[in-house]
Amino acid sequence: MRVFLISIFFCICLSQLLAQENNDFEKSSTAVGFNLLTGDTILAQQYSFPGYIRKHKIDSTSNTIVLNQLEKSSSGKVKTKGQLVGFDLSQDQLLWTRKYRSGAQSSFTSFGKTFDITDKGSTAIDIYSGEELWEIENNIYYINGLREVVLGYRIRPYPYKQNVLQRINPKDGSALWDRDVSKDYGWQETAFLNDSTFLIAADGLYAINLNDGSGWKYEAQLGKKDYTNTGIQNAAGIAFGAFTGVYVISGGQKTITNVCSNILVDSSFIYFASKQSIIKLNANRDTLWQQALPKDQTSSSYLFLNNGKLFMINRGYALVRGRPVNYGTPYIASFDASNGSQNFLEIAPKTGRAMNKEVAERDTSMLLVIGAQVFNYSLNSGKLLKERTFKYKEYGELEGFDEQEYTYLLKDSNFISFQKNDPSLGYLSTSNSKVFGLNSELEIVEEFDRNKLYFKTISKGRFTMIDNGKESLIIDEEGQRLSKLNYHSRQLLLGNKLYSFTEEGFMVVELGDISR
Predict the structure, then answer these.
(1) CB within 8 A of 143, min separation 6: which ones?
(2) CB-based burial of residue 134 (10 Å sphere; 0-12 exposed, 13-18 middle, 19+ buried)?
(3) Rounded to an integer, what distance in angstroms lies between the CA atom of residue 8 and that of residue 195?
(4) Of 27, 43, 51, 498, whose CB neighbour count within 10 A is largest?
(5) What is the per-residue pLDDT across 162-200, written as a single tens digit (0 to 9) for each?
(6) Is the whole-model pTM more than 0.90?
């Protein structure tokens, strides 16, 4: 018996020792770059953990990070099992560890808690102690830490109710209210009308009072169930962001979604387009105007306002399982924002292709891409001003217009964003890593190698961090280079510290050391 107890005690001690060794981390100081003004070396505190860091979640209010740490085999292969690690960034110490739930679909960190979400429910874990606070039979669907909102669907719905949405109290997991909101098509778009009203485009447009769950629903067709893909082709070449390849859609019965526009909120007014019509509503759901849209031609679309006019770009595709397929017909339209009268509706030239997601908006015209062609349309009349075909062998596949302010290029020894470089140009990205600056006549005025461009990752005050995939630079508001970091990774700025995340752990750099 004594030998048996000693054996148990030895096993317990050994398991605790192994667990402790598995949870150890190494801290070291490493050179990561240099100050370009002073020549001083920039040092980072590097934190290395055993295993593979799959995810990280930071709670900025507590200065605590939760790492999803997966184990590795002796051959270096990443396993599916591992643990969650709570780490105090201010004290440089491990707070807790707990076994990783392999069934976890996603996780969020907010309200001083980490939320693990599985197909069986959601669990809240205290970020300071690792203690499990509560567990509910609810799939948390949406978390907004700034607005202190947690929304999710009951797993075991009430009788005859399959889509019971609840607002969850993050303190104890209790339901604050119930509301019937369909998730058959997922949440296709969301927006805030004001601090207390949340808008969801699902099987229609919902307005939800976050205080009590009350609100209205505007009936609209935003998709179609059990849609057989006979005759539906992949919307090849549509880039959802830069550097996106061609999507492949498998056969069978599927659900078409995103046959709608973005939810455009202007003051207390809501603009929204569905498969059948485009509308303007007020906060009480009163229809201020409604215009019918071309039957069987409307698809995923984009709304924007310009000088009192509402513009609609119908792209000619929808989504199946999150991937684009040709659907409907590309067209552009304009309406008077005050009364809904139609200024124009122009069907795009038939190319058999869907319109690219990225569109360049100019002062009086807009540039758009369909397949291998670029079109310049007048915002005043909707008339086609110019079109041009770009041969694939010479230019590659057209990916869309890079209109974001975060793209930087070098000019006169300093960096400048594309928008500030020449606002009259549209910057077209292609699959062969080229970026062309096109004028209104669709002539190539400037040409850049995308591999040599930088993208804005972080801004604070008058300083901006830009990255080219190999290194990061700190520049000031004039585009002058201040510091250089000789690495590239996921980065986050909290207070005066820059955090960079890798598969092994993370590094911390004092911002003051690199921005002066």
Answers:
(1) 108, 110, 115, 149, 150, 151
(2) middle
(3) 58
(4) 498
(5) 799 999 999 999 999 999 999 888 899 999 999 999 999
(6) no
